[in-house]
Amino acid sequence: MRALALDLIDRFGKEITYTKEEVGATYDPATGKNSGGSTSSFTIKVSPPDPYDISLVDGEIIRAGDARCLVAARAAEDLGLIPDSITDKLDFGGAIWTVVGVKHIWSGDQVAAFELQVRKN
After folding, report:
1. pTM
2. Which of 35, 50, 88, 119 could crosslink 99 through cysteines, CB 3.0-4.6 Å?
3. Which CATH number fits domain 2-25+37-120: 3.30.1370, 1.10.287, 2.40.10, 1.10.860?
């Protein structure tokens, strides 16, 4: 399953820049932004943003306009990238999306892919 996820996303995905906030940043809930610390950027292929079905939008956890993207776990791990932060950003050719949730898709005892809930800035 891990190899299949990697193959499909590599074949049909879109290359993007994934920016991850590093340890040391301080989150300011008033502004919703981090300050201090450093960031790391990775070039990786992901599935294009797929909007959630309107029946799943509840206005709180899933908002109108939210979408999901898939990242192959093996590709992410090869880069040392583990999507786990709600401050991570995805740059789709200038359109910036913020990760607001991460779901692990398992294959046996290994993660095959990460499903990212993203929100356009």
Report:
1. 0.85
2. 88
3. 2.40.10
